[in-house]
TrEMBL record:
Pfam families: Cpn60_TCP1. It is found in: Cytoplasm. It comes from the Eukaryota. Belongs to the TCP-1 chaperonin family. One of its GO terms (cellular component) is chaperonin-containing T-complex. InterPro entries: Chap_CCT_eta, Chaperone_TCP-1, Chaperonin_TCP-1_CS, Cpn60/GroEL/TCP-1, GroEL-like_apical_dom_sf, GROEL-like_equatorial_sf, TCP-1-like_intermed_sf, TCP-1_chaperonin. Molecular chaperone; assists the folding of proteins upon ATP hydrolysis. Known to play a role, in vitro, in the folding of actin and tubulin. Heterooligomeric complex that forms two stacked rings. Keywords: ATP-binding, Chaperone, Cytoplasm, Nucleotide-binding. GO terms for molecular function: ATP binding. Residues 563-585 are annotated as: Disordered. This is T-complex protein 1 subunit eta.
Length: 585
């Protein structure tokens, strides 16, 4: 027929597209379902999640760990994984809070989307509210001097607060001082000392024994490496030893040359064999004559070298992990050598004491009294591998919190007090805003209440009664600004007086990240799913909105079964699948 224009195909067959208000609401629903998977882990009374992938089992209430293990599939909801991982990397704690805040902001502004308010208007006012909230947190922050006894107490309280919601909360009296000591040993060498916190503070896990048997080594400790015959005769204890670090293989091997050698006399062959022996002996002799008492190498140290060093009263260890070598170098002042030629005393390190000692069923090489004191090692004990692994994650979070407290030197009260005070401030500020912006800022303020509300719900308290009391207290006068949830009595309490403190930067970062994530979700006006990015079996299956749904179960311990090839999905309302098992489709 004349005048008809042929259809233009832009996307390949099987590509699924979704756009407009419906897809935006679908994205918000997907984010809400993800938040439902982690909201019960928040706070001191939060529950744990058990994630199984067919090969290993992980028990954790750390938001970033759970988000990573669930392998969220929904493209928009993956934004929540990013902000959770960013929060974990930057400040350590608050990984669950930032996800809940982002999703609650989306939930509170969802009615505006449904009513047809343009996303740009919503985003502009969300950014406005976020900026006001961050400035209010900075105004509320209480500064302290870390070099005073009061500052030391502040650091201990921030570490204890971070551990309150962890599996080792009942042992915070043991771990909080250890964490503060370890982090402060790095800070003593200036701000740069805190840059590589994870690399300079080693955590070694030894299953067995009681968790109270965990201890801190102010130096370096690492598990005894593989050793050859002759190791038993080595000296296992030194005072003020000289330490040589190598990246050299000390093992007798045939020297391989890409050449052919012709000999006319059997004695010439023997001279070649003797030369190979002489090469290794020259290397070993260089290690001894330089004055070293301890020789460590990233590469193997063979049986000949082991016996050679043992006969001369030296200690050696080969195949030392790279991280342990770096910590030894930092602590002792040694320089790693790539050759045994020209070793002089200036490249050797030292420490006050070295000893190989038994810890549980393992033997550890322990360096203490190091002159640089730029590293520490925490030895963790526990009854199961899952418990120790979760303890390690908890300690890492607490160390990051202490680090942030040392750098910012300011804290705010926890327990939902800051969120409620910022919400009150936003409501007051919103009264001066005209038009739709006032309602959106009010919605942002309402979203901040998710933190104290979820703390109450997870503790089994009536959140409506407690939040009503908190709103009244915060509205009365300035003295009520630090009132939050009392988890112990199901009431309200001045959380600052109670010693529930968090770094101010943590709260600022959480608020800014949550608002940014909400803005990213709101800015999406079309979702295109290319079948090439999906599993082959998923092509033509209808794309988004076509996978079956099942409700997530929650009990005393929520269990997410992510068995190989299986799937888990939340109830999104619009049928959007958002989770998949490890290796699943």
């Amino acid at each position: 027929m004349m005048g008809m224009r042929p259809g233009i195909i832009l996307l390949r067959e099987g590509t699924d597209t979704s756009q407009g208000k419906a897809q935006l609401i679908s994205n918000i629903n997907a984010c809400q379902a993800v938040a439902d998977a982690v909201r019960t882990t928040l706070g001191p009374r939060g529950m744990d999640k058990l994630v199984a992938d067919g090969r290993r089992v992980t028990i954790s209430n750390d938001g970033a760990t759970i988000m990573r293990l669930l392998e969220i599939e929904h493209p928009a909801a993956k934004t929540l994984v990013d902000i959770s991982m960013s929060q974990d990397a930057e400040v350590g704690d608050g990984t669950t809070s930032v996800v809940l805040l982002a999703v609650e902001i989306l939930r509170q502004i969802k009615p505006f989307v449904e009513e047809g308010v343009h996303p740009q208007i919503i985003m502009r006012n969300v950014r406005l509210a976020s900026g006001i909230a961050v400035r209010r947190v900075r105004d509320l922050a209480v500064s302290f001097d870390v070099d005073t006894p009061e500052g030391e107490a502040m650091l201990l309280k921030t570490a204890s607060t971070a551990l309150n919601s962890k599996l080792i909360a009942t042992h915070q009296d043991l771990f909080a001082p250890m964490i503060v000591d370890a982090v402060r040993s790095l800070a003593a060498h200036g701000p740069d000392g805190l840059d590589d916190l994870k690399g300079m503070i080693g955590i070694k896990k030894i299953p067995g024994g009681d968790v109270r048997q965990s201890f801190l080594v102010k130096g370096v400790a690492f598990k005894k490496t593989f050793s050859y015959a002759g190791f038993e005769q080595m000296t296992k204890k030194f005072t003020n030893p000289k330490i040589l670090l190598l990246n050299v293989e000390l093992e007798l091997k045939n020297e391989k040359e890409n050449a052919e050698v012709r000999i006319e006399d059997p004695d010439q062959y023997q001279s070649i064999v003797d030369a190979e022996w002489q090469v290794i002996y020259d290397k070993l002799d260089s290690c001894v004559t330089c004055g070293a008492n301890i020789v460590l190498s990233r590469l193997p140290i063979g049986d000949l070298a082991t016996q050679y060093f043992a006969d001369r009263g030296l200690f050696c260890a080969g195949r030392v992990e790279d991280g342990d070598m770096k910590r030894v170098a930092k602590a002792t002042g040694a320089t790693v050598q790539t050759s045994t030629n020209g070793i002089y005393e200036g490249v050797l390190g030292t420490c006050a004491d070295f000893e190989e000692k038994r810890v549980g069923d393992e033997r550890f090489n322990i360096f203490t009294g190091c002159p640089n004191s730029l590293t520490s090692t925490m030895i963790l004990r526990g009854g199961s591998e899952q418990f120790i692994a979760e303890s390690e994650r908890s300690i890492h979070d607490a160390m990051m919190v202490v680090k942030r407290s040392l750098t910012s030197r300011s804290v705010v009260a926890g327990g939902g007090a800051v969120e409620l005070e910022v919400a009150r401030h936003l409501r007051q500020h919103a009264l001066g805003i005209e038009g739709k912006g006032q309602l959106i800022v009010m919605a942002f303020a309402k979203a901040l209440e998710i933190v104290p509300r979820q703390l109450c719900d997870n503790a089994g308290f009536d959140s409506n009664d407690i939040l009503s009391a908190l709103r009244k207290k915060h509205a009365q006068d300035e003295d009520g600004k630090w009132y939050g949830v009392d988890i112990e009595r199901g009431d309200i309490i001045d959380t600052f007086e109670a010693g529930i403190w968090e770094p101010a930067d943590n709260k600022s970062f959480s608020l800014a990240s949550a608002a940014e994530a909400a803005g990213v979700i709101l800015s999406i006006d079309e979702t295109v799913i290319n079948p090439r990015s999906q599993d082959p079996g998923a092509v033509g299956a209808g794309g988004m909105g076509q996978k079956p749904m099942s409700n997530m179960m929650a009990g005393a311990m929520d269990t997410v079964n992510a068995q190989q090839g299986g799937s888990r999905s939340g109830n999104l309302g619009n049928g959007v699948s958002y989770l998949k098992g490890r290796g699943g489709g």
